[in-house]
Specification:
CATH architecture of the largest domain: Sandwich
Oligomer: single chain
Helix content: under 10%
CATH topology of the largest domain: Jelly Rolls
Structural class: mainly beta
CATH superfamily of the largest domain: Galactose-binding lectin
Largest sheet: 5 strands, antiparallel
């Protein structure tokens, strides 16, 4: 009986000793963790579609304690990141092909290194809108486009032109050496290979000012009208002989009001420093209009002196059926300071009288001494 008791005590101690040889709750067989980490490890690339180049990288795998992601782009601290389980990291890539390496560590301290190919492709910008603003030879350009990183502007006035860079939200300016017809090309850059573009045809005009000949296709000869059915147009020369053989002239048609006339804001002011005589070629198609007067009125003086209506001269027609030259001499008019500049030209014909529909042709306005 005593021997049996001794045997029971020995077995109990042996059981306790065996039980205490491992830490409570820890299974020393880690092979399952290694197997899980190596067999189920995956990766996810979430590539943005807005040409930002942003790629979200999410390492996945059961039993992973952390992952180190090497982006395959960038150096130093910017070239990699440590990612906690279930988390992700975002990196911005230029367009191109890369190798992303993920080193995953499991709970047992084992590491598994896996490399994955990554290709980042930018899409072509869409909704390209170009805004052009012209003043004589100067052109200002701005543009917007979805997914654009920047723009290149080609003004179309030189051979083998190198595009002018234009940032998002910016405006670029260009001065054309000569008037003419040009194609302005704006290219929206994606930041990669893909691009989109828009071509706009423009007409670059010379500034409107003296001399006025009506023959330059790149001048906008603006003669606004007032006074009931008044009209002024550029037409073919009705009698290309004598003093005037030019192809195009201005046709003045009188309105119903005695005070009817035309007005022309000038891009280039009429500068009395260069002369105070305005000479005009005039063609009168009707003998009944001999003696009727053509008015020239100068308005909108730079600085406001003299006031509007001061610089008014009237000269009578002396012939019909042939071109003649009328001279409007402002040198004898008092109240006009030396060097005065006027920025609007006004014409009237046979003012203060009826005669709606009367026609007179004018050409070659010039300023002389």
């Amino acid at each position: 009986m005593k021997n049996k008791n001794i045997n029971y005590v020995f077995l109990l101690l042996l059981f306790v000793a065996v039980s205490c040889s491992k830490k409570d709750g820890i299974n020393q067989d880690t092979s399952s963790l290694t197997n899980v980490a190596s067999s189920n490890l995956t990766k996810i690339f979430d590539i943005s579609a807005d040409n930002s180049g942003n790629v979200k990288i999410t390492p996945l795998g059961e039993g992973i304690s952390s992952s180190t992601v090497s982006f395959g782009h960038g150096t130093g601290a910017a070239g990699s990141a440590v990612v906690a389980p279930g988390a992700n990291v975002t990196h911005s890539y230029p367009e191109g092909s890369y190798t992303v390496t993920i080193v995953s560590k499991d709970l047992a301290g084992h590491e598994l290194t896996t490399s994955y190919p990554l290709k980042v492709t930018y899409v072509a910008p869409t909704n390209l809108s170009v805004n052009l603003s012209q003043t004589a030879h100067n052109l200002k350009v701005s543009a917007t486009a979805t997914y654009a990183a920047s723009f290149l502007v080609y003004y179309g006035d030189v051979a083998n032109e190198v595009g002018t860079p234009m940032a998002l939200g910016a405006t670029v300016s260009h001065d054309y050496a000569t008037s003419g017809n040009y194609n302005v090309r704006v290219v929206a850059l994606s930041g990669g290979v893909a691009t989109s573009e828009k071509i706009t045809a423009i007409k670059v005009t010379d500034p409107f000012g003296f001399p006025i000949t009506f023959d330059n296709a790149f001048v906008s000869y603006f003669f606004g009208t007032f006074g009931d059915n008044q009209a002024f147009t550029t037409v073919a020369n009705p009698s290309a002989t004598g003093l005037n053989t030019s192809a195009s002239v201005g046709k003045f048609v009188k309105g119903f009001q005695g005070w009817s006339g035309t007005y022309s804001p000038m891009d280039l002011p009429i500068d009395f420093a260069t002369g105070k005589k305005i000479k005009v070629l005039v063609y009168n198609p009707s003998a009944a209009q001999i003696g009727q007067k053509l008015n020239i009125e100068l308005e909108w003086a730079v600085g406001g002196t003299p006031s509007n209506g001061v610089a008014v001269l009237k000269m009578p027609l002396t012939t019909s059926g042939a071109w003649e030259e009328l001279v409007f001499d402002y040198s004898g008019i008092s109240g006009i300071p030396a060097g005065t500049k006027f920025t609007q030209l006004v014409l009237r014909f046979n003012d203060s009288f009826d005669g709606a529909g009367a026609i007179v042709y004018v050409d070659n306005f010039r300023l002389t001494n």
